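Annex B.
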Amino acid sequence: MTAAWFALAANLTGALYAFGVRSYLAWRATRDTGMRLGSQPPGSLAWWARVLFVGALVLLLAAPVAALAGLPGLAVPAAVTVAGAVLTAAGTVMVVLAQLTMGSSWRVGVDPAERTDLVVGGLFRFCRNPIFTAMGMTAAGTLLLVPNLVSGAGLVALLVGVQLQVRVVEEPYLLGTHGAAYRRYAARTGRFLPLVGRLKAAALGEA
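Isoprenylcysteine carboxylmethyltransferase family protein: predicted structure tokens.
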């Protein structure tokens, strides 16, 4: 029960900060919420990225609620539960730190006509998408805290949705907007983990 309550609190806190508090702070500073939620053609990869991402957030909040309501899950050793708590807490903190690092460049979604500064400092020195990495940590931690079908589905939906969002939506935008600067950054910095998923010259459109 304690693990489920911890998972619920961490996921709820993370969601409220990432999409509520952060948006309010951006609006207060710039009169812009940072939300770029334009419609996507139904059935497109970008559309599926959004559906899976939103679905993952719902499932990860629902997983501990389901556990508290009596949904059975796997029995795991105490060490696994502790590891889940550490991952979940660390992921939540990393989301906050990475969003703060982005400053006025922070956005939810992409506006192809907009140009924001390319952020390469802070946690972005280690990977190009530390917010998504942190959310993956929180999702994995939730699965360890409440190992049931709902948390498992949430983790899978998040991983697939994030891959689609980054590869189909965000990287093409960043390449088109920042050109050579993003090419250099992507060539030396991993996509989600340090050194893993660096883009090579051919993939970046260079000779």
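The two ends are 57 Å apart (CA to CA). The chain has a mean pLDDT of 88. Further annotation is deferred to the next reporting cycle.
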